[in-house]
Amino acid sequence: MSSSMAQDFNESAISPRLDGLVSVAQSNNTNNQSAFPWERLPYELRGQIFKELNSERSGNNGSPYFKWQGSMPALIVALRTSQLSYSHVLEWFEKTNSFIVMDSSSSHDLGDLTTREVGLIKEVFVDIRYGFLFVVKALKHHL
After folding, report:
1. What is the phi/psi pair of residue 94, to 5°?
2. Residue pLDDT, tens place only, 70-124
3. What is the dihedral of CA 102, 108, 112, 115, to 10 degrees?
4. What is the signed CA dihedral for 125, 58, 78, 36, rounded to 10 degrees?
5. pTM of this prediction?
6. Which residues, at least 6 apart from 22, have a Cβ–Cβ distance to it below 8 Å?
């Protein structure tokens, strides 16, 4: 609703209930205009962007972008403050990280994962031939 139309409504003799609805409409219009444009993208379009990003194998060692390899992908970290997009991007993180492998050649620090992100990992395979104590220390941090 344009501000001139809202002003016309406010200046006319309307019921208090309708006046309240005009205020809510003005507030919602302001919120939508100030929302980050990324948040206003349709779910399907954001999904297509995530799919393209993940298929480019732009992650470490040519792996899918959303594959955890010792640190969280920068896009996930950036979207943590945006509840809607963060929930959506975590779907891609979960698909790509239903399990992780921890061994002496991979990082054992889960410290950059939030509790919610760690909860998406269903299985952890631990190679105990080397560095077992570092893996235990990393897992204890999130238990």
Report:
1. -65, -45
2. 788 999 999 999 989 999 999 999 999 888 877 766 656 677 889 999 899 888 8
3. 60
4. -140
5. 0.61
6. 1, 6, 9, 10, 14
71: its two tokens: 């640190």
Domain ranges in the chain are 3-34, 38-141
Residue type, 90: L
Burial of 74 (0-12, 13-18, 19+ CB in 10 A): exposed
C-alpha closest to that of 109 among 69, 60, 143? 69
pLDDT at 123: 86
Q: Report the chain's terminal Cα–Cα distance, integer Å.
A: 50
Dihedral (Cα; 35, 40, 41, 43), 10-degree rounding: 120
